[in-house]
Design a protein that fits this description.
Elements (H helix, E strand, L loop, with lengths): L5 H13 L5 E5 L3 H4 L2 H6 L4 E3 L4 H13 L3 E7 H4 L4 H10 L5 E5 L17 H6 L5 E3 L4 H11 L6 E4 L22 E4 L5 E7 L4 H13 L4 E5 L2 E3 L3 H9 L1 E7 L8 H12 L3 E5 L11 H7 L4 H11 L1
Parallel strand pairs: 1-2, 1-3, 3-4, 4-6, 5-6, 8-9, 8-11, 11-12
Antiparallel strand pairs: 5-10, 7-9
Helix pairs in contact: 1-8, 4-6, 9-13, 10-11
Length: 312
């Protein structure tokens, strides 16, 4: 079992490039430990800013650094970064098209036991609604590293959401196909299947598990890792829908405004098929560990497979 969370992969990637690129900055809101960024703060103290519990200032100062030619990465729990800092993300980053990378750590229900105040089930919808703001949910440490490397090469704002705990490897050092803003096919591309599973972030692993369970029962499945929620890879969504009887999306988010809503819109416009969106409920999420929350709402391999069989 992998023991490296995606947040640590971000730190390792930034450490790799910060020695030669002194414009890379890391900013934290009393969250360097939670973000896994302590090694960066220790190794490059002159390229760091600690704001304390002041998320709005975190984003505004990051935007100021970007306007001076720096490459700021602003880390804060996703539940606060996408809510307390929303005006700053809107005006200082998106409206100004500023080169700020907002890293929402402990996203989704990573802080499950702390309840709704610490859940980020609306962040995808909120950030995706901002013009110029891109939204990414990498599925494992290898894809996370590829994403950060790609984002270091551009000058546009982005929101990256990662969870708190390690997730099982989907890819590897040798096999991690990646193209910025293009989804990755994990199963059965260009084949006619019963079900197309489109998912992102920590839900990719259970979706793959569900695909394996379904295929053992003779139900053909394609799986699309849509790490780029915005800009959504519409061509991949259309291809997946055209080659399937039904489309099922799986996400760690509210049922409104996230991956499922975006996929349903594309499918409805381009190739009408039945779309089922599996997500967290439109209600305060239960408290418990991430695993307990996922199990309760059917966001596990077995839970997803059960829902798909009921749909068929």
């Amino acid at each position: 079992m992998n023991k490296i969370p995606n947040r640590q992969a971000i730190c390792q990637t930034l450490l790799k490039y910060a020695e030669k690129d002194k414009s890379i900055f890391a900013l934290c809101s009393d969250s360097r430990g939670s973000a896994g960024m302590s090694p960066f703060f220790q190794q490059f103290p002159e390229q760091t800013v600690e704001l304390g519990i002041a998320e709005q200032n975190l984003v505004s100062i990051a935007a100021g650094l970007a306007s001076c030619g720096k490459k700021p990465y602003a880390f804060s729990p996703a539940c606060f970064l996408a809510s307390r800092s929303y005006e700053q993300a809107k005006v200082d980053c998106a409206y100004s098209n500023t080169n700020v990378k907002l890293i929402g750590i402990s996203g989704g229900v990573s802080y499950g036991a702390l309840g709704m105040s610490h859940h980020s089930a609306q962040d995808i919808a909120a950030m995706a609604a901002l013009p110029n703001m891109r939204v990414y949910l990498p599925s494992d440490r290898f894809q996370t590293a590829k994403l950060i490397e790609a984002l270091l090469q551009d000058e546009k704002p982005a929101y990256v959401r990662v969870g708190r705990n390690p997730v099982e490897d989907i890819y590897s050092d040798e096999a991690c196909p990646f193209e910025l803003n293009r989804a990755t096919w994990l199963r059965s591309r260009a084949q006619t299947v019963r079900v197309a599973l489109i998912t992102c972030g920590e839900m990719v692993c259970p979706a793959l598990e569900a695909a394996g369970l379904l295929e053992r029962e003779g139900i053909s499945v394609s799986v699309l890792d849509m790490y780029c929620v915005k800009p959504l890879d519409k061509a991949a969504v259309t291809e997946a829908a055209q080659n399937a009887d039904i489309v099922v999306t799986v996400e760690e988010h509210s049922p409104y405004g996230g991956l499922g809503s975006m996929v349903a819109q594309v499918v409805g416009e381009c190739c009408p098929k039945r779309v089922k969106c599996l997500s967290l409920p439109d209600a305060p999420v239960i408290t418990g560990t991430s695993a307990e929350v996922f199990a309760h709402y059917g966001l596990t391999g077995r839970g997803i497979a059960k829902t798909v069989k009921e749909l068929l």
